[in-house]
């Protein structure tokens, strides 16, 4: 029987073996996912075919990005179904059509800014758009910054620095916006989401999270909710501690937890467990798609176990179908 996660109005049925790929294909790590206006699922992954497109039943439609992307990391889709593909291996953000035509490139391919210089980009991680179409980029592993660009890719401003104080970051890993223009930043190793106005002024932070990695704003303009993917322990000393994830948390616009999905008993490949939630998207039915970097994370979570072949093949993409009763 498929596992059921969550409680109350937020119950989800795990769709086992969701992705139906061509023979011999493997997704490997799925860094991020996005869903377009026709509920097609875009799977930005680190396999041989970087962008795999599926329908909402998991049937394969097409792929693109071969030879273009270096290391998939973040994916966002706008109201016109343009894809914003963040490549942390190439230090770029590329705006693409749904068939892979590149419309805009921000950053210089294969030329990172100096480490912690504050200049874009050094291993950028994700993008989000303001209500006016301005582009926010979280940056990332080799910087501790958020950059704001015009819709055509001209830098407007940047904010953030390394540290633990408000407005400082320790791996700025993901970014989202809402209809009012607030900016939400997953400050992963500071175990929080920070909230800013559209000009980068610190407003508040959400705590009681464990290594927030994925971040998705949903639920509509009047009452947005957020789904947050949390990584499990990253250290040997707390590797087997229960109730630290990996898991998903659903919170309201104030950061108050509404529901939590999984994570009580650590990572795993069984139905109802997560490996390393890294990207999240929802479709028009409210179903959740989770991209996981289970291949990269395997040795951290299971240093003494051989990785099952299914992890590299397809297990790094999960669909959670909302239970409608």
From TrEMBL:
SUPFAM superfamilies: NHL repeat
Xref: InterPro entries: 6-blade_b-propeller_TolB-like (IPR011042), NHL_repeat (IPR001258)
NHL repeat positions: 128-152, 160-199
Repeat is among the record's keywords: yes
Sorted UniProt keywords: Glycoprotein, Repeat, Signal
Superkingdom per UniProt: Bacteria
Matches recorded under Gene3D superfamilies: TolB, C-terminal domain
PANTHER family assigned to the protein according to its UniProt record, in alphabetical order: BLL1368 PROTEIN (PTHR10680:SF38), PEPTIDYL-GLYCINE ALPHA-AMIDATING MONOOXYGENASE (PTHR10680)
Protein name: NHL repeat-containing protein
Originating organism: Bradyrhizobium nitroreducens
